[in-house]
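Re: that backbone. Tokens:
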């Protein structure tokens, strides 16, 4: 393969990009000096990795000796090829969060005058529990912003490392003070990292001597990077001086369309054009209209009547991505790197049904006329409103059965159900699939993706439930909920019957909360009916020797086990109230989880969660070893680690029908796609002005907000639906008796599809 080049492949079909990738990798292997060295394909996420593995295995017969790192890790691996000494592993965002939290907890560091706005924010909260949560949340947000600054604002970070401010000229005092605080934290964290041998990807790039590096015998394959930052673009063009770089980019349009204007940009242009224009001569004097009438005049044709409205409404991120690739070409020319863009044309068969007509109009940047004259044309794009989430999912389940019955070649893995909020839909999807499967002679296998360990793992729920018991003063409902966990019952060797007996005792004993002291009650009568755990256990033991009408069970062994459990938990409650260093917390967490949480047989995935918890505590000790933390700090940290660990039921693309979140960087094609939850409250989201985010003060090319990002994601999903697309939302809030409107995205597509209908031919009424 030829070095010193960037080959950029465009296509509106992911299948064509995957086929080109497979061909390039095969050619690379045939010409490799070391055929045992794995080829690297950088992918945006594990779902795309799975798709490529299955695609190559199907088309080539095998997929082996391939490495699929994600973007940051993959680029770091390529930088390893150019470094004389192997650098320490990349700092993850979790590790950066811990370092920032340690900084925020160090009183001597926070005493600096530069930290005044941060101190003002933190010191406004006197509650220790809420203060702990604010510190962690602030650390998490700053970690995200620091990574974003390195990628999107490298020039600002360079100024920071040189001890200068980027907004020094601003008249906004708050902006300058916030930048000073963030710069102070960033400089301290990065200097501390450098002393310990750790660097971010941005810093490692700065340290490489590009003049004296050797050319590695390896190519880079970058598959469907939705958008590349300014730093990524700069890094890629430097790497392309020494190895071939192949970029496979999904493009929803069949041409270069950087000139496309959004509706807001059109409105701005109309405002500008409506202003009065004055002509001046060389001396700066006004020229009369008559004198200027002979001057050369240019006219520009408005695109309002020619441009596709869906492309105008949703495609801004894709348009700016093309502009960034144009800048990449300029950088390549500057560094004498060959730049070759190639278009891969689609091979999918097309028809005149609604979905393909709309896709073709987007692809070709055209506005279609009224083409829908037959009801059969409308079957490929269906939009619906449901009275409830349950009914919405139930309708999807029944429709899947209909499609499977109509198409014998259709596989479950060809169908995807996507939702904007998986936490909201997960339980409903499971409930409907279980209920419907019991009513049909066969079951629909499905895989549930994009959940978290916090939600799915019994072990994680048992650990967090244990912290809840210790934090919330032994409230009876919290204790019993924790005891019902299978991991807790396994550790305590507790059966369902024994737990039911405990519940009966506690209800009749009137145990409410706390271990050994009373609490406020509305009145004295109410107080007399409530008891602490200590009082309840005393009455339980007394029932063995008294003729009390309580007449509880005579199972002394079961009573003893309950007494031991509650008294042991109380001892741990006393021990954990004292602030400690992370190393001590690590030992205590290990001891308490070993005592009260165990993994039942057959739950092999729970062992992975236990190991992940151990690794997380190791990170905390390594990066915040000298910070005193309380129980609330540890509990919040562990909970966030569980939330960020992904979990799933079934195997993606091989475990049946796919149920997943509607997330960016997943342009995976499906024959039939269902998108649920497209109401105005859930999609595409809301915009917030954030004081901490310095990038909001000056927009750059490639700065995409949440709404633009989600709309473009919807556009990619629409273009990746091969045969049918179903869209729905819940239109009624049954609790508040309110009507819920569809999202603007849903409404835009509905209006455009309606405009293509010939209502007379369809015998439909316009609505």
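Recovered sequence:
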């Amino acid at each position: 393969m030829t070095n010193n080049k960037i080959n950029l492949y465009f296509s509106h079909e992911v299948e064509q990009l995957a086929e080109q990738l497979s061909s390039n990798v095969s050619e690379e292997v045939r010409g490799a000096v070391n055929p045992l060295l794995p080829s690297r394909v950088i992918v945006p996420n594990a779902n795309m990795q799975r798709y490529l593995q299955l695609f190559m295995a199907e088309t080539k017969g095998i997929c082996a000796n391939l490495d699929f790192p994600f973007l940051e890790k993959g680029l770091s691996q390529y930088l390893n090829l150019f470094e004389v000494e192997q650098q320490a592993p990349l700092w993850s965002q979790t590790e950066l969060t811990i370092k920032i939290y340690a900084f925020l907890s160090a009183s001597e560091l926070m005493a600096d005058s530069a930290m005044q706005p941060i101190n003002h924010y933190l010191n406004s909260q006197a509650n220790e529990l809420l203060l702990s949560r604010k510190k962690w949340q602030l650390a998490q947000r700053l970690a995200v912003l620091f990574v974003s600054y390195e990628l999107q604002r490298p020039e600002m970070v360079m100024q920071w490392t040189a001890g200068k401010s980027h907004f020094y000229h601003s008249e906004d005092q708050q902006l300058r003070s916030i930048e000073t605080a963030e710069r102070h934290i960033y400089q301290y964290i990065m200097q501390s990292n450098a002393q310990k041998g750790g660097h971010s990807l941005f810093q490692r790039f700065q340290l490489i001597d590009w003049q004296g590096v050797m050319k590695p015998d390896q190519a880079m394959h970058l598959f469907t990077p939705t958008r590349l930052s300014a730093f990524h673009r700069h890094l890629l063009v430097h790497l392309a001086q020494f190895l071939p770089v192949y970029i496979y980019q999904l493009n929803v349009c069949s041409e270069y369309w950087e000139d496309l204007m959004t509706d807001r940009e059109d409105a701005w242009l109309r405002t500008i054009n409506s202003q009065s224009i004055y002509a001046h001569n060389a001396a700066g004097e006004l020229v009369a209209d008559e004198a200027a009438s002979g001057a050369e005049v240019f006219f520009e044709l408005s695109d309002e009547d020619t441009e596709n409205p869906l492309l105008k409404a949703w495609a801004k991120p894709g348009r700016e991505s093309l502009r960034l690739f144009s800048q990449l070409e300029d950088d390549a020319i500057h560094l004498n790197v060959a730049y070759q863009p190639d278009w891969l044309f689609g091979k999918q068969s097309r028809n005149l049904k609604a979905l393909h007509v709309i896709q073709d109009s987007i692809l070709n940047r055209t506005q279609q006329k009224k083409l829908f004259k037959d009801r059969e044309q409308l079957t490929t794009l269906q939009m619906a409103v449901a009275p409830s989430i349950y009914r919405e999912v139930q309708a999807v389940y029944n429709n899947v059965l209909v499609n499977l019955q109509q198409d014998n070649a259709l596989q479950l893995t060809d169908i995807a159900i996507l939702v904007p909020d998986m936490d909201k839909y997960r339980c409903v999807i499971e409930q409907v699939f279980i209920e419907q499967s019991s009513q049909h002679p066969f079951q629909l296998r499905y895989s549930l993706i994009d959940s978290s360990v916090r939600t799915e793992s019994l072990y994680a729920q048992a650990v967090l439930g244990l912290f809840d018991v210790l934090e919330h003063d032994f409230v009876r409902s919290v204790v019993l909920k924790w005891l019902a966990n299978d991991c807790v019952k396994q550790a305590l060797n507790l059966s369902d019957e024994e737990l039911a007996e405990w519940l009966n005792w506690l209800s009749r004993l009137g145990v409410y909360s706390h271990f050994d002291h009373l609490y406020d009650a509305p009145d004295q009568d109410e107080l007399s009916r409530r008891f602490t755990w200590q009082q309840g256990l005393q009455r339980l033991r007394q029932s063995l020797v008294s003729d009390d009408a309580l007449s509880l069970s005579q199972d002394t062994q079961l009573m003893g086990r309950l007494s031991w459990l509650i008294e042991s938990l109380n001892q741990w409650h006393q021990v954990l109230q004292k602030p400690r260093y992370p190393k001590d917390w690590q030992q205590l967490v290990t001891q308490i989880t070993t005592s009260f949480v165990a993994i039942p047989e057959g739950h092999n995935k729970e062992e992975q969660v236990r190991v992940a918890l151990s690794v997380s505590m190791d990170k905390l000790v390594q990066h915040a070893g000298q910070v005193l933390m309380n129980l609330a700090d540890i509990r919040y940290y562990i909970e966030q680690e569980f939330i960020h660990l992904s979990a799933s039921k079934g195997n993606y693309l091989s475990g049946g029908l796919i149920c997943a979140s509607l997330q960016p960087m997943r342009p995976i094609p499906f024959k039939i796609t269902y998108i649920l939850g497209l109401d105005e409250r859930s999609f595409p989201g809301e915009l917030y002005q954030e004081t901490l985010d310095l990038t909001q003060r000056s927009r750059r090319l490639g700065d995409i907000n949440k709404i633009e990002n989600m709309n473009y994601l919807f556009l990619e999903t629409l273009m990746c639906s091969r045969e049918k697309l179903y869209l729905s939302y819940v239109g009624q809030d049954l609790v508040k008796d309110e009507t819920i409107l569809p999202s603007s995205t849903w409404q835009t597509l509905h209006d455009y599809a309606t405009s293509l209908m010939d209502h007379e031919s369809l015998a439909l009424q316009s609505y």
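The first strand starts at residue 5 and ends at 11. The chain has four domains: 1-83+208-265+301-347, 93-204, 354-445+656-762, 455-644.
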